[in-house]
């Protein structure tokens, strides 16, 4: 069972998201994340979906999605170079000044040209805002949890796009 | 520019342009406007059922007997929810159908208004496409889309939900000839390379076998199948949905395979070295234990829906194509194979365990009833309900060319038979319709007798009355130590309700009771003479079994034979 990625172009209509997500629940496919937003065409939305599945199941999922009247195109992102990021907010509470310094250091180390910053700060609280890969976000969460007592996490699903330069992955 | 018209007028215009001459309808507050429009319309027959579930089955029977797309019209809320079982049935058996549901006015949607339900949401997983018309200007386009999607590719039901205000709002009178649907491209071609690969595989086989399903019938490819099998000398087995796609008297036809398939057919699947399957989706009733399915064979799978291929059975050569197109191409290069030895083996298996039932201890033997039907009704369309009687019908009724076998295969819906038979008769009034039903399933939609008598259709109801839910009782008998919990339909003192003869009298319909073998043919002959409905109450023993049987989850080769 590997993690796989699909991008899906769908009609931007009421009920389409429910139909796509309903397919996953109805057929017991293990949906990891699903994000959706409009494209440059107002009447077309693009979804980024990640599932955990074996080869056979994954082929089925793609076919089943393709069979839906509302699905315009299915792109398998598993095998092509892509850029993929996930939004994450992490609020760390109960910090003294040493803790705060450490939080800033962590942000600095994880930052790759603006992808992690501390975007807000209060008496004993700091707020991280990150757009990293899902894996990198996982590492950051693990580190924050090991260093600080109270960490609150809000993650969005991943959004992916095909790379222009083929060497990217 | 043509003058604007109301939604209700556009609705009728759309039906006319689709060539719809019959619709199946049940009224209610949220479709009274459309109903009123139909009153003013000529050329569309409106059939009133007595329950919306039955109405959908009636439409299914109509579609299956005519090949046309059936149309259903019901009101919102309970009218709509009552259709759900029928829609699911149509979905699993790929029946082209458009269901129109009334809906509360747009401004009330989402407010838990009186008789509001999210029917599009509820039927999302059992329709090919479903939509609420939210804008009067989209109505024509969406109805067209509905008919297009329902009838092309792998057919199926489409649901179009029309809010009451849309029905009375004026707008464009346009009804398009065609809608481009960017996400919908049903397969119209066949990959010749894949087909040649399949052919080579077959050609090199020692024990080739064709497994044909309902897709062959939907594609109208019966003749092509016969031609292909005959040209190559390959034996053919069928699924229940495929019953009738191969003439039963062909020396190459070996009967149905699957849970209650013939011994020889199940052996053939187990022993073949190439299985050429076409228009079937390898339902578990066909495969038995998956890991042991056709264990010695390389498998070819031809199906119009690529999503059906390699879903259950992983295949060696997938071919996404319409069955007719694929068979036509194959016939162009098909050459005779020497399969004599293999056909002899099949004959020997058939001899070892021929399909036949022991004589019943009491009542009429089901096999005798089926043979009586063969004798008296060699040209009728055969409709079944779900249960033992359905399996006996698939085993013992012989279909000739031009006969349809109309049964609920995918969902196995009790209550399907009687309304479907009515629908089949409405669709094809010149043809005799014989219904084979059980006393359990019949009681699930027997109110439709009123529909049938009122509109005057002609159906012979062969009620296999064993006073039990036989199919489940059979499992209790074989696997649950004869603990007959909730499968006996009679009272503790043995009395049975209703007395079907007296009940039929209430509907002023002819009814005959048959309690022994001698009564079978005379009763059927009398029914044949009688135009209208005849109910024949065949008294059948509750202990009669459908055999062979492959226990759920065991290999096809492991059949219970006695
Ligand atoms: C709506 C529905 N409920 C339950 C079942 C489960 N079921 C399958 S066959 C059967 C018994 C059918 O009894 P009857 O109609 O009397 O036919 P018989 O098997 O006796 O020929 C039942 C309960 C079903 N298929 N459909």
TrEMBL record, chain A:
<keyword id="KW-0808">Transferase</keyword>
<dbReference type="Pfam" id="PF10369">
    <property type="entry name" value="ALS_ss_C"/>
</dbReference>
<dbReference type="InterPro" id="IPR045865">
    <property type="entry name" value="ACT-like_dom_sf"/>
</dbReference>
<dbReference type="InterPro" id="IPR019455">
    <property type="entry name" value="Acetolactate_synth_ssu_C"/>
</dbReference>
<keyword id="KW-0028">Amino-acid biosynthesis</keyword>
<dbReference type="GO" id="GO:1990610">
    <property type="term" value="F:acetolactate synthase regulator activity"/>
</dbReference>
<protein>
    <recommendedName>
        <fullName>Acetolactate synthase small subunit</fullName>
        <ecNumber>2.2.1.6</ecNumber>
    </recommendedName>
</protein>
<comment type="subunit">
    <text>Dimer of large and small chains.</text>
</comment>
<dbReference type="InterPro" id="IPR027271">
    <property type="entry name" value="Acetolactate_synth/TF_NikR_C"/>
</dbReference>
<comment type="function">
    <text>Catalyzes the conversion of 2 pyruvate molecules into acetolactate in the first common step of the biosynthetic pathway of the branched-amino acids such as leucine, isoleucine, and valine.</text>
</comment>
<dbReference type="GO" id="GO:0009097">
    <property type="term" value="P:isoleucine biosynthetic process"/>
</dbReference>
<comment type="similarity">
    <text>Belongs to the acetolactate synthase small subunit family.</text>
</comment>
<dbReference type="GO" id="GO:0003984">
    <property type="term" value="F:acetolactate synthase activity"/>
</dbReference>
<dbReference type="InterPro" id="IPR054480">
    <property type="entry name" value="AHAS_small-like_ACT"/>
</dbReference>
<keyword id="KW-0100">Branched-chain amino acid biosynthesis</keyword>
<dbReference type="GO" id="GO:0009099">
    <property type="term" value="P:L-valine biosynthetic process"/>
</dbReference>
<dbReference type="InterPro" id="IPR002912">
    <property type="entry name" value="ACT_dom"/>
</dbReference>
<dbReference type="InterPro" id="IPR004789">
    <property type="entry name" value="Acetalactate_synth_ssu"/>
</dbReference>
<feature type="domain" description="ACT">
    <location>
        <begin position="5"/>
        <end position="82"/>
    </location>
</feature>
<dbReference type="Pfam" id="PF22629">
    <property type="entry name" value="ACT_AHAS_ss"/>
</dbReference>
<dbReference type="InterPro" id="IPR039557">
    <property type="entry name" value="AHAS_ACT"/>
</dbReference>
<comment type="pathway">
    <text>Amino-acid biosynthesis; L-valine biosynthesis; L-valine from pyruvate: step 1/4.</text>
</comment>
<comment type="pathway">
    <text>Amino-acid biosynthesis; L-isoleucine biosynthesis; L-isoleucine from 2-oxobutanoate: step 1/4.</text>
</comment>
<dbReference type="GO" id="GO:0005829">
    <property type="term" value="C:cytosol"/>
</dbReference>
